[in-house]
Amino acid sequence: MKTLVSPGNAICCSILSVCGIIFLTLLGFAFDARVEVLTEFVTDPDDPHATASACFTAAIVYACFLAFCGCQSLVHKFNSRHQIQL
């Protein structure tokens, strides 16, 4: 099996993806609940529900990156265990 990213990059991408998923999901729930701090100013979005949908969509994109980088980490582990050590 061939890898596309290095082991360090795969782990870093996985960690950042988990953080992004958590942050965007919480932010999406906050916009969907119309939390006053996020929706009371003039510069805030006119449609908090649409903003929440965008946050959830971005969290799904991060989940796809997490799946890809997680698979890359597993491929690195598989390849390192099956290489002949001299």
From TrEMBL:
Segments spanning the bilayer are: 12-31, 51-75
Compartments (UniProt record):
Membrane
Keyword set, alphabetical order: Membrane, Transmembrane, Transmembrane helix
UniProt topology in membrane: Multi-pass membrane protein
Q: Which GO terms describe its molecular function?
A: RNA endonuclease activity
**CC terms in the record's Gene Ontology section:** membrane
- One Pfam entry for this protein is V-ATPase_su_f
Q: Which domain of life is it from?
A: Eukaryota
Q: What is its main location?
A: membrane
Instruction: Say if the entry is tagged with keyword DNA-binding.
Output: no
Which InterPro entries does this entry report, sorted A to Z? Ribonucl_Kappa (IPR056552), RNase_K (IPR026770)
Identification of the protein by name: Uncharacterized protein
